[in-house]
Amino acid sequence: MESKHILIISASVRKGRRSHNVALFFQNFLQEKYQIKASIADLKDYHFPIFEERLRFLENPSAQVLELSDRIKQSDGLIIVSPEYNGGYPASLKNVIDLYYDEWKRKPIAISTVSDGGFGGAQALTSLQFQLWKIGALTIPAMFPVPNVGNNYNDQGEPTDKEGAHKRATNFINELFYWIEAKKLKEANS
Hints:
Rossmann fold, 6 helices, 5 strands, NAD(P)H-dep_reductase, Flavoprotein-like_sf, NAD(P)H-dependent oxidoreductase
């Protein structure tokens, strides 16, 4: 398999967050199953200011803003792992989506949403998918909702149902890989 660079965006900046456990799961899963060294962009580490303007219009963007821009551009595809808060996704993620534009354009993106309840962040997934589609991202049709996240993934990203999680993740990741390869093929034939 051709080497791929996958960036995982861990969207929550909250104390006691559990969605980060799913980001760790994907990082471990990609390394174990596909021998891909995926990296995590943890929005908790970035401390971005509230959105004022898109990157291309900022006069003096911070080093962190430029660094994440480069990480997104250099990736072949992304996995966004987001919790659902009150039917939506966190402001930290909305802030980053609005900050960048060219970085998202035609970028294959897989979305995983999590919740403490039984629906796995379905409402956040729908609105996140729509916003990314609106700015030209290639959001893949496969989804990875995680209900009852606190009962299903530990702090090291290990699922309680490893076989089930791996089966779902395989389908999810293979769909992401399909769109990455489709994009590369299109670019090669352009």
